[in-house]
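Subject: Predicted fold for PBP1A family penicillin-binding protein, 768 residues

User T.R. writes:
Posting the sequence so we have a shared reference for the thread.
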Amino acid sequence: MAQKNNTTVKDINYYKKKFWKLFFYSSGAVILFFLLASWGFFGAMPSFEDLENPESNLATEIISSDGVTIGKFYNENRTPIKFEDLPPHLVNALVATEDERFYEHSGIDAKRTFGAAVQLGSNGGASTISQQLAKQLFHGEGSSFKVFRIIQKVKEWIIAIKLERQYTKNEIIAMYFNVYDFNNYAIGIRSASKTYFSKEPKDLTIDEAAILVGMFKNSSLYNPVRNPVGVKNRRNVVLSQMLKSKIITQSQKEQLSNLPIKLDFKLQTHKEGIATYFREYLREYMKKWVKENKKPNGEDYDIYTDGLKIYTTIDSKMQEHAEEAVQEHMKNLQQEFFHQQKDNKNAPFINITDAETNRIITNAMKNSERWRVMKDLDKTEDEIIASFDVKTKMKIFSWKGEIDTVMTPKDSIRYYKHFLQAGLMSLEPQTGHIKAWVGGINYKYFQYDHVGQGARQVGSTFKPFVYATAIEQLGMSPCDSIIDSPFMIHKGRHHVTEDWEPKNSDRQYRGMVTLKRALALSINTVSAKLIDKTGPEAVVALTKKLGVNSEIPNQPSIALGAVEITVQDMVAAYSTFANQGVYMKPQFISRIEDKNGVVLYETIPDSRDVLNKDIAFAVIKLLEGVTESGSGVRLRTEGGGSGDNRWTGYPYGFTNPIAGKTGTSQNQSDGWFIGMVPNLVTGVWVGCEDRSARFKSITYGQGATAALPVWGYFMKKCYEDKDLQVSKDPFERPDNLSIKVDCWTPRKVVTDSTAVDTEEQDIDEFGL
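User M.O. replies:
I've generated the structure tokens; pasting them so everyone works from the same file.
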């Protein structure tokens, strides 16, 4: 019996030793495991610097002059936001749903962790917000393999504790909101709020905040665009958690739970949003800027990851008005263009040979993405060309929305050649600040920029440069008279290689006219006579002083606009007249800051005196004549038009002083209008990509019909927007004006505003 008791005692001591040995070894192993993990044995751990500056992939913001983010450059569409800019209900919803004891633990919630361990994770993990932040910042989703997942979980615990020591609770909340991927190119709460609701986070309602917080569970599954039913259910779960945490009342919960999912979804990609053409122009500029402006350590800035802030001169409201004006007019004018091309077997090309047509189509094929891709695949030219005749499914642009269709790539090229394009730029003459920039009708489908890239024939919009030269060189005034009569510059004079005899479009001559009347009616013979007196060299010299960068030949024909110039240069040149003869180089950036708000670059105005105030004002008075009695007079009317619905009539009714000029190039391939009020100069160009694609007649192809209505729509919207303060005042008259500008005019005769006036509309500057 005694022997049996001794054996029993021995067994108990044995198991006790075994237990404590196992306990200490296990504890040691766990401690060693954590130490090894923290030392990076199982993979690199973030350094102190990484924890101090975890946001290493920040989008560069493009900010308008009125403080609106109009676009971003990014690899990840992420813009950081401070905790104080987060609405309390958004923060409370996150804590209530994801980590209700967030403000009580130090990175790891022991209670939730133990509960998850007991249930072997069957009811989900026990990750705190700090742990989820650690995963987002340094590990991502990780491995599904159990052993690796355990290692990752341990690393998350270690990083979470470090984060809790490094940052305040509020900073951790803000960081978590800033790094989460909400899908649809939206990383971070600010991008998500702008993408799904088109507003800043501080303006989110409670139900909108609940939708976004619900996405933290699985942003792909609970995507508001693709899964509204699932998102509504998930939102209501968040609302229930908010009720449980006493953030909202029962009645609020019931009311909010019944609301439908209402989005204002605007995808924030490089090809969507406002000012797309301007943003691409800015991107190209920034590529050069980063080479010339280095970081303190000598490295280049990265516009996609360094979180720069580019403050631009663009006004977001004015930009929106400009884009709306282009869309309103162009979709109407396009209907007329399609209508006129119905019976054209070679549509949209007019009066060109089959060989010329094939050349245009072939060049378009060679410049296409399809050609580039197949060339990279080592396909032969014959194979590539053959592929353009194979029907394929595609999505094409139309003014009624994208269309899914089946056609050959070659047919799609011809289809896109039908579309009229437009370019608009608006500039503040006193500062040179560009306020609006519309480079085309749709950046996703037409990426050529008709403001900064596309130089086109300017037609009669060039004539004010000739008149300005005459006033400066010859001492003439807008009230001086000149004879409108047949005129010829003979071979050898002014470098002409054969006799040049320009004709007026209607083949009529008006006899004695003032310069003001001559410019208003865009009389070709008068422009030719003036350049004959000044010489083309003087006109070219003045045009260069006005900031035009194009190559301009020393030929008299430039008087009629046989010159290719960009919209950007034309607007800047005209702005000199509105700015009392002082040229201001166009500026589109105010300053650039780094992610911490340190100013890296600030624009310095670049100006020069070109004309004295009197001459500049005299040109303004000449240009006012165009809208008083010339091709721009329709800006003064409120009704009229051609009687159909395919183009814009005359719904403007402006009564304030407006200086402007229409222009139409040869065969009406280009239509122009540049209009000015004292504090805003806006130029508009309209035409097809190819000059041989055009309207058959000048009725629709001229600048007064094709381009002027865009200006009218735009200015009407600007005037209705009182925040913009666009001037309706007269242009400032210089003191002691030495040039006669107030000319006698005959009594005005009231005429039918719907009638077509050949003197005002049939302005074919190149009719010979």
